Every structure is written in C-alpha cells, then in structure tokens.
Amino acid sequence: MFRFFSHSKCYLQVKRVLQGREQAPWPAHHVAAAQKGSFSTIPVDRSSRSDLWPKDVGILALEVYFPSQYVEQVELEKYDGVEAGKYTQGLGQRQMGFCSAHEDINSLCLTVVQRLVERSHLSWDSIGRLEVGTETIIDKSKAVKTVLMQLFQDSGNTDVEGIDTTNACYGGTASLFNAADWVESSSWDGRYALVVCGDIAVYATGNARPTGGAGAVAMLVGPNAPLALERGLRGTHMENAYDFYKPNLASEYPVVDGKLSIQCYFRALDQCYAVYRKKIQSQWQKEGITKPFTMEDFQFIIFHTPFCKLVQKSVGRLLLNDFLAAPKPDTESGVYKGLQNFRGKKLEDTYSDKDVEKAFQKASLEIFSQKTKPSLLLSSRNGNMYTPSVYGCLASLLAQCSAQQLAGSRIGAFSYGSGLAASLFSLQVSQDAAPGSPLDKLVSSLSDLQTRLDSRKCIPPEEFAQIMKLREDTHHLANHTPHGSKDNLFPGTWYLQQIDDKYRRAYARKPL
C-alpha cells in the first residue's frame, strides 16, 4: 500500500496550503511549528479573503468494508418461492452481503477506520475531525463516534471533533459536507477529517428482504484532493415524508411504503437536479459560458442505490429532465429520437407513468452503460449499504476505471435519505494521472475490490434465514455473547465479544 500520507508529507502539505497564498502574512514561528508537525499551533485566518480557502478540498483516500458472507439472489428467489428473475432481473441484484451475529454497527466502523488508517500509513494524531453517518441505532444516546475513539487511545489524541449524523441513508453525505466545511472554516487546525458511513440493512421476511445489505466506507478529507468537492455546486431538497422509517426501536426492521419511496426518490432527484443546474449555469455565465447544463456534462454519475434497477431508471429520469428543459430538442435523431409525444408532459405528472419510464430508460441505455453502470459493482454484489451506498458506488467506479480514464472528469453524485433529505453534488477529478500521483494512488488502493468480493463465502438461503432469525431474537439482549463461529470473518475484522448486564459492549479484532 502506498505511503502518501506519511507524517512528514502531511506537514509539508499543510505548509504548502498555508504558504501558497498570495500576500498571506504567516509569522516565522508558525512556519516553524508546521515543520515540527504541530497542527494545533497553525492559524488559519480566512476572514477577509475568499481566495485563502484551502484548494481542492475533497476525498484523499477511501476504504470499503463489507461482510465476508453473502447469499445468491437467484437462490433466494427459489427459497422464497417467487418467480424466477424477480430479484435478479426485476431489482437488478446478483448477491446480498449480510452480517454474522458477531458484527454490529460499531464493529463495522471500527474495521473500516482501522483499515483506512493502516493502509494509508496515517498517524492517529493527524486526524482532527471524525464524523459518522449511520441509521443503524443500537443506543439512543451513545454515538458510534465515541466507540471509535478507542482507536485513538494509544496516540493520546482526544482532540477530535465531530459526532454521529442520522437521517436514513443521507447521514454519510451530511457528514462529508460537514467535514469539508470544517476544512474550509476558521476552526480548521490543519489536520485531516475522517468521514465514516456504515449500516446494516435488514428487513423482515418478505419481498423487501432482497434489498438488504451491509457495509461501511471511510473517507479521508482534506485539501489538494484528487476528488475535490466542487464549491457552490450542491442541489438539495428536503421535505416531510413517511416513505421509509424506523419507529419501533426494539426492532432492526423498518416500515416501508415502497411505491411512495420510489416517488419520493424521483421527486427529490428532479428537484436537486434543477437546483444544481441553476447554480452551475450561474457560475458558467460569470465565466462567459451561456450553454445549458445537461447530463452530458457529467462524465460519470453515481447514485444512492437501494437496488440497481432503480438507478437505471434514474438515469432515464435525468434524461427526461433534460428533454423537457430543452428549448428545441431534436426528436428526429440522436438521444431524443422518437420522444416527440412526451414533449407536453410535466415532471410532477410522470412519477407513475410507465410509458414515460420505459421510453426514457430505453433512450438513456447507452448513457447508463457509459456513465453509471461501472459504479454498480458493489451494489449488485453486496446490496444496499444505506449511508455508504453512494460512496460504495464511488469506490466501484474507481476500482473499474484507470486514473487516465478518470482524470479531469466531473462525477455527479445523488444522495437520498428517506424521510426525506437529498442532495446532488459533484466531484472534480484531478488532471494529474501520472504514476505515483494522488489520483493514481487512490485508484490503486481500490484495485482489489473485485478480488475481495470474490473471496467471500456463499451461504445457502436456509442458513441465511436462520442467521436472520437469530439476529431478530437476540437484538438488544443484555448479558449476551454472540452465537456462532468467528471463523468466516475477514482477517483484521473487529467483532462483538460480549454485551454485559448493563448493555456495555466489548470488541476485539481478529488477527491479520
């Protein structure tokens, strides 16, 4: 694994960020402090000049964790007695990862954070903010973030800001925004921010169970990133809806209105895309660019993925938005060929219109194949991870493209959380794809994703159902030791050892 986050390089990076600003009056003792590696003594005064913001704040490193066992969706179709293709063709799912009795939200996040820090050769005291996005609540008071602080214990670093953020599948995106905003704020002390998204998506027996999954993603956030968040380009939509929610705190299972949830997802996508287009076109006008923004201006597009078929429909949905917004779309040739009969449609009237859905899904098939399909590797083979879902799609895209293919591209990202909260934002990929560049190292760090998926153990549906029943029966038990073997866990995985009579949880790590 690469070592571009070594202590010395980290400090040099901070020094460059602070010194590489025109007319920035940094006293000599502050520069000396940076050279000695004292993050906390470096001031970041950007009160009077917007160009003093750190440059290209975004994702420096990314790590993924998913369970070591899975069930085949085609076998689950047979076990559940549904028609062949219902889960595989209808939902677009191949496999579904699931957790053993020894894994909970804390262990998932412990594992992915430890893995990111170790593989990136980070020091624990180089992290100044840690945020967790999750909807998997095992304690109504104690945050997952506080459990993760045990990883910092030996370093003595307790000066770590941030806490958990919860709103269905949106918490990870809110945490990423918070982390980036911290780096660009007067509170930043020069250290990295770390964002963790993790969830265990489980459903009661029935037609929703195949849309489950589990996993965690950790992202290192800082300046001079190979994946920079484009400043000022976020389209957000929020409203009150009961499409998916978890009112029964004694159960892991949600209450789901599937039809309403899909309508909410599409409506949020429409609204976020409209706001994003307005903002980027405003930026372009200031630069003398007058053309309208369309989906073609994204080289890649990733989505929160409850199931893969919904994402394919969402690409068609964006094409519908472009079509209805175009002053004079060419319906005789090109991507809009044959769509003239839909010209008079209104977006708000099309959420349940199957003719519109089929027509634009077909018209956007090539766009989907080029811009989005590569991002669905993890979603199709591991399932819905909730908060990490869209970032698992980002990892999949990076794992299946070369640095040269990604360099200079704009990646659109749509994040949705029921209830509801949603944002469409974009990442600008660095132009530098040279060997050893930050982009090359980031892409290389995820090159083993396919191999890791292939190394999991396939579990028969009957055994999967037994494990799910055991999770249901032991959920929130006190004075409890998890049942079953830990042998199937990946090396280096954190796992739950014991819950005592006061509900305090103890964890251990499987040797590497």
Automatic annotation (TrEMBL):
Active site annotation, chain numbering: E135, C169, H304
Gene Ontology molecular-function annotations: hydroxymethylglutaryl-CoA synthase activity
Compartments where located: Mitochondrion
Pathway this chain belongs to: Metabolic intermediate biosynthesis; (R)-mevalonate biosynthesis; (R)-mevalonate from acetyl-CoA: step 2/3
GO BP terms, alphabetized: acetyl-CoA metabolic process; cholesterol biosynthetic process; farnesyl diphosphate biosynthetic process, mevalonate pathway
Residues that hold CoA according to the record: N207, S261, K309, K313
Self-association state and partner proteins as the record states: Homodimer.
Name this polypeptide is given: Hydroxymethylglutaryl-CoA synthase
Record gene name: HMGCS2
